[in-house]
From TrEMBL:
This is Glycoside-hydrolase family GH114 TIM-barrel domain-containing protein. Residues 300-321 are annotated as: Disordered. Pfam families: Glyco_hydro_114. Residues 94-297 form the Glycoside-hydrolase family GH114 TIM-barrel domain. SUPFAM superfamilies: (Trans)glycosidases. It comes from Trinickia dabaoshanensis.
Length: 321
């Protein structure tokens, strides 16, 4: 069994599969034969996270997920409080991920009242949310118990971790920021300790990757070409210097950590030209595109998937940056 556990961890990260030892390779062949004998074919969970991501990633934060549209994507990220049950909607080619806010909590979350008031260190007025002190010793266990565990029980096996940089609104010195980053690392490791098979996608969190890149399957960021201004509730073009910084981060994520990068852009629901332009430009950079509205309640039909070679670094019109 130790070989099997090691094998599954290695296979979950294809970029490291090339370093499998001979005994593990033999075990992989035996495992494939067993799976085929039992299931008739490899079951859905045997697919790699990267193959799911190459089929596209969608985000929908409404109350009634459009299952038919989402079934065209390899991964669908849903609002945790939507009431959706992955167990009731098993799809052969789509993995259900739950949204989970790490750095901020809004009062409407069921677990909000359970958080001690002194765990909050600030307020994000744009989203009417409270910023959590990531250095609080009890926060990782609380987050796993009150956020991740209930979603796991509902059938979610993947999680989209958001608000990973919210601490910067409250931490104003280098030592304070370092303590917040250390706390975020502890949370991600706590999730993987409790649920080793959990699949994680980060929203930004670039500064955490040196410590936890082996624990995550992809990195996303928002607003590459078109953004959403929550304070003014309008769509805005992204300045060139902001885009250049994001593309520099994307290059590091792909080249140094060998992780796929997802770019989420925002266009009005009826602005198909905006969405089409964003998708084409993002793909030309070798990134995985998704375009939605400011409330993340618009899902367009999934674009035709590119082959692995088409989306590999160095095979596109130009690389990030």
């Amino acid at each position: 069994m130790p070989y099997l556990a090691t094998l599954l961890r290695q296979l979950a990260h294809p970029t490291r599969a090339a370093y499998l030892t001979l005994p593990l390779l033999l075990a992989a062949g035996a495992l494939a034969l067993v799976l085929r004998a039992v299931f008739g074919a490899a079951p859905a969970w045997a697919d790699t996270p990267q193959s799911d991501i190459r089929r596209g990633v969608a985000f929908y934060y409404g109350t009634t997920p459009p299952v038919d549209l989402l079934s065209g994507y390899g991964i669908a990220v849903l609002e945790a409080d939507s009431g959706f049950s992955p167990r009731e909607h098993p799809l052969p080619d789509t993995r259900w991920y739950a949204y989970a806010s790490v750095g901020e909590v809004t009062p409407h979350r069921a677990y909000y009242r359970e958080i001690p008031p002194d765990w909050f260190v600030g307020h994000n007025t744009a989203w009417s949310s409270h910023i959590v002190d990531q250095s609080t010793p009890g926060w990782p266990a609380f987050f796993v118990r009150h956020v991740i565990d209930p979603l796991w029980e509902r059938g979610y096996r993947g999680f989209f971790l958001d608000t990973l940089d919210s601490y910067q609104l409250a931490a104003k010195t280098d030592p304070a920021r370092a303590r917040q980053r250390e706390g975020l690392v502890r949370i991600i490791r706590a999730i993987k300790t409790r649920h080793p098979q959990a699949r994680l996608i980060l929203n930004r969190g670039f500064e955490l990757l040196p410590d936890i890149h082996d624990d995550v399957d992809a990195v996303a960021f928002e607003s590459l070409f078109n953004g959403w201004d929550q304070s003014q509730r309008r769509y805005v073009p992204v300045p060139d210097n902001d885009r250049a910084w994001l593309l520099g981060q994307a290059r590091t994520v792909r080249d140094q950590y060998k992780l796929p990068v997802i770019a989420i852009d925002y266009c009005a629901p009826d602005d198909d030209a905006c969405a089409r332009s964003s998708i084409e430009q993002t793909r030309a950079l070798g990134l995985i595109p998704f375009v939605t509205d400011g409330a993340l309640q618009t899902v367009r039909p999934a674009p035709a998937p590119e082959s692995e070679s088409d989306s590999a670094p160095g095979r596109n019109a130009r690389a990030p940056g």
